[in-house]
Amino acid sequence: MYKSFYKLQRNPFEITPDPSFLFPTTRHNEALASLYYGVTAHRGFVVLTGEVGTGKTLILRSLLGLLQRRDVAFALIFNPTLSPLEFMRYIAGDFGLPVTGKAKDELIHVLNGFLLQRHEKGLTTILVVDEAHHLSAEILEEIRLLTNLETSQQKLLQIVLAGQPELDQKLDSQELRQLKQRIALRCHLDALSPNETREYMGRRLKIAGAPAAGEIFSGPAIEAVFRHSRGIPRLVNTICENALLSGYAKNAATITPEIIDGVARDLRLGVVAVEPKNNGGAWLSKEREQNELLLAVKTLLEVHDRLLGPETKGRLQ
Ligand SMILES: Nc1ncnc2c1ncn2[C@@H]1O[C@H](COP(=O)(O)OP(=O)(O)OP(=O)(O)O)[C@@H](O)[C@H]1O
Ligand SMILES: [Mg+2]
């Protein structure tokens, strides 16, 4: 909608994790390099953690993109709330192995044969689990058993777990100390610094074809984006996307800090419900998520109405 107004060829702030937009901060670079090394050097088990919206899925997609150029087979699990049998089925199925009617130990047997065959040909095989903080202790135990599939020199299956910081806590628990000892590499993603936020926005705008990225968002507007997002890339994207829509509706060639403040207010970014200590936390955060979604939809509808108003109608034709 706003693309031609700001002379852009594509949306700069999509929230889907698209590797072509990767902005290589030192930490994102290190994480990608560690995962790549861990997997290709057959180190066995690597873990990536980071706060919500800091780029874990993006790094996994970038890793898989890099690995696709090599002859690597991978199973990707992004819904880890499965039973142990479903989990094994899913993995075997993703590798194209026969799964119907097979019990868990049969599936492990088939999987082992497949991994050995690939190993003999010098090929790498990977299991990637995103959202791994949701994994149950039962599934983590299955993963530990999978790390046991090995020859005398090497692990047969490379395992990458990515998840929010609760994953670290899970892996630190007494119950999972055996699994923790098997982790060969750990990496962590953080929010962006103010400088990185500015460069991140500039890079996205440039990739989207902005003639002069710095001119769309004023310096103070970029500072406001950092203030409201605290450097969390997903929030930066949401704020900027909404700001471009709002700026377009207001016919503003440059996005000002006032526009950013208005968007942050509409998205209720400063509002965090106080969660009761003992229960209801998950429910409250779900409710907050729904409220935020409703507000985002409301903002979009308002912008849409404004766009259809008499002063902007002309620009749409
Ligand atoms: N270094 C980066 N370069 C470019 N875009 C990034 C970067 N880091 C994060 N993003 C963008 O931020 C958004 C959120 O990233 P992503 O979905 O990968 O986060 P996540 O850590 O997996 O979040 P969650 O914990 O909710 O699963 C995406 O649009 C992604 O493209
Ligand atoms: Mg993710």
Major beta-sheet overview:
5 strands, parallel
Helix segment tally: 14
Bound small molecules, which ones? adenosine-5'-triphosphate, magnesium ion
CATH architecture of the largest domain: 3-Layer(aba) Sandwich
Q: What's the arrangement of strands in the largest beta sheet?
A: 2-3-4-1-5
Q: Overall 3D geometry?
A: elongated
**Mean of residue pLDDT values:** 87
Q: What's the β-strand tally?
A: 5
> How many structural domains does the protein architecture include?
2
* Secondary-structure content class: alpha/beta
Helix amount? 40-55%
- Identify the CATH class of the largest domain: Alpha Beta
Query: What is the CATH T-level topology of the largest domain?
Result: Rossmann fold
**Radius of gyration, in angstroms, nearest whole number:** 23 Å
Q: What oligomerization state is this entry in?
A: single chain
